[in-house]
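C-alpha cells please, single chain.
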Amino acid sequence: MNTQDQYLTSYLEVLRSQRQLSQHTLDSYLLDLRELIKLAGQAGQADLARLTTHHIRRFAAQMHAGGQNARSIARKLSSWRGFYRWLTEERNLAANPVEGVRSPKKSKPLPKALGADDAVRLVAHKGGDQPTARANRAMFELLYSSGLRVSELASLDVAAVTESGYSPAGWVDMQEGEVRVTGKGGKQRIVPVGKPALAALQDWLAIRPTLVKADPYPLFLTERGTRISVRLIQLRLKAHAQSLDIPANVHPHMLRHSFASHVLQSSGDLRAVQEMLGHSSIAATQVYTSLDFQHLAKVYDQTHPRAKK
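Here you go.
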C-alpha cells in the first residue's frame, strides 16, 4: 500500500469510528479524495503532504474549467479541508493548504420572463365582463405595463386619499397615465402606465362601486368587497395562464421580469429600467442584460446561416 492509500485508509477509519459516518458518506469522501490524488499526480506531486495552497487553488480552477459546478467544487474543497486538518496533526504540517481557498461563486439563476407574444396574450385576454374578470385584466395589465411588485399592486388605493389622517401607499393617476407606489424600504416611485392598462382600469372602475362595502379605499377588491390579497392575485394569475395554455408556471413576479426584459430589449436604457423597477442598485437591474443577451443569442441561432452546424 502506497503512502497516499495509507493516508486515505487511516483518515476514513477515523471518520468511521469517531464520527460514525454512514458508508454512503464515507464513499463520497473517498471519491473526493481520489480526485485530489489524481489532480496531484497530474501536477507531478506524489505526496499529498507536500501540496500547497497554490496547488489547491489550481485544482479548483481546473475543476471549474472542466465544467464542474460551484456546489460540487465547494463540497470537494470541504472534504479536502477536513482531510488536511487530520493530516496536519498526523504529519505536523506547517499549515492546512485548503484553508482560505474559496470555491467559485454559485451562479444565480436568471429570472424567468415570458416571451413578448405570450405576455401580451396573457394580459390582453378579457375573460368576460364579470367583476372578477375585469379586476383580473386590470391587475394583470398593470403588473406588466408598469413592472409592479405584487405587494405594490395589492396595496394600491383608488385615489390619493388624504382624509382622516389616512396615508395611501400608492394610487393610479388616470389623467397623467402614471402609478405611484411605495416599494421596499418605504421608497416611493412613479412609473408610466400604458394605454391598454389604463383602458382595463377604466373598465374595472366602472363596475368597482358595486363591490365597495366597509373599506372605500382599496383599488382592487374581492367579490366580498375586501382588499385583494397577494395570495389571491397569485392564484388568479396562475389559473388565467393555465386557461390560455401558456407553457410556464406564471406568477406576478414573472410579469415584472417580463416588463424589465422587454423594455430593456427595446430601449437598451438600463438606468431607466432601474428607476422604473425601484432598484436601489444598478447591479440588481443588470441581471436583465443577461436575459437580453439570451434573447439576442436565440435570434442569432434561429436566423444566421452559419449559426448551426
